[in-house]
Amino acid sequence: MRDTWPLLRDSDFPPIRRDRLDTLQLNLGYLCNLSCIHCHVNAGPRRTELMDRATMQLALDVAARYGIGTLDVTGGSPEMNPDFRWLVTHARAAGMKVMDRLNPTIMEEPGYEWVGEFLAEHGVETVASLPCYSQANVDEQRGQGVFEASVKALQSLNALGYGQPGSGLVLNLVYNPNGAFLPPAQEQLQADYRRLLGDNFGIVFNQLFALANMPIQRYGSWLMSKGKFVDYMATLKGAHRPENLRGVMCRSLLSVDYQGYVYDCDFNQMLHLPVALEPDLEDDARPHLRDLLQRDFPRRIRTAEHCYGCTAGQGSSCGGALA
Ligand code: SF4
Ligand code: SF4
């Protein structure tokens, strides 16, 4: 795989700082039943890196120390971590909101029949990836049969109450482009998803998040191999909107890798760009959750060219468009 970091490192991205800490995003590991081309964590069925229970406990301790209200769990497929249920149960018992970045096809895999009911029972907010409402596009991006499995899983979540008015069970969907272009307007796309998924499959959901693809890892490598990297970066930079700087997710979130090391966001984590703790850790140190138990959370945010993926056009964050 080609490394895009040398092309991203030197950047004129404007300086930004973290002003509060609302969310801890935990990457529970890179194990996944799929290997999507746009995946920015290179997840797949053969990855063995998984967060252990001691690290999860540290994360809960950090959350308690700073009064962090939201635990956002991601992967890979986070449910494939053997301690996923332990973590969710303890976070909910501590009064935290838990968001699960769900690859819905996991619910159709043998051994994971428990996922939907467990999430519903614990009131977990689901953020389910469905990169298009078209079977052809989804299967091209994620693999044969992924669309059908996703539809079945979303129907099961609906049957449990997810996405249904008044249920309190939130089902949001995530779209990302199937090529080297920015997402279309989120509101219009959401209306199209609602109509087509509703008419064709009876699926209901709360919101659609339209996310831009980041020029890093597998997707960045794909851009390079197709000779599209420079043009894609020009698209991102040309569409930069300074007003989006206010809402980029790193300003209120910290991301944690499976070993407990801390980053400004999931993308910096994948670029091995650790958070900069002030004042006395060097830039090349790797701050850990343990460090957050002893000092204030980091304010400075380490940025590079990929950050334009968050500020281009309508903007892109873990909660969808910013504009
Ligand atoms: S489902 Fe998500 S985590 Fe798994 S390979 Fe696809 S993009 Fe990556
Ligand atoms: S890529 Fe990460 S650090 Fe850069 S703006 Fe986006 S969230 Fe912030």
Structure description:
This protein is an alpha/beta fold and 323 residues long. 33% of the residues lie in helices and 11% in strands. It contains twelve helices and eight strands. Strands 6-5-4-3-2-1-7-8 form an eight-stranded mixed β-sheet. Residues 32, 34-36, 39, 41, 43, 75-77, 103, 129 line the site of one iron/sulfur cluster (SF4).
List keywords for this structure.
binds iron/sulfur cluster, 323 residues, eight-stranded mixed β-sheet, globular
Briefly note the structural class of the backbone: alpha/beta
Strand order of the largest sheet: 6-5-4-3-2-1-7-8
Helices, by number, come to: 12
The main sheet comes to: 8 strands, mixed
The strand count comes to 8
Oligomer state of the chains in this structure = single chain
Q: How would you state the average pLDDT, rounded?
A: 92
Ligand inventory reads: iron/sulfur cluster
- Backbone CA Rg: 19 Å
Strand content: 5-15%
In short:
33% of the residues lie in helices and 11% in strands. The protein has 323 residues and is an alpha/beta fold.
Which helices and strands occur, and which strands form pairs?
Layout: H1 5-8, E1 23-27, H2 53-66, E2 70-74, H3 84-93, E3 97-102, H4 115-121, E4 125-129, H5 135-142, H6 146-159, E5 171-175, H7 186-201, E6 208-210, H8 217-225, H9 229-238, E7 253-256, E8 262-263, H10 266-270, H11 289-292, H12 308-311
Parallel strand pairs: 1-2, 1-7, 2-3, 3-4, 4-5, 5-6
Antiparallel strand pairs: 7-8
The structure holds iron/sulfur cluster (2 copies).
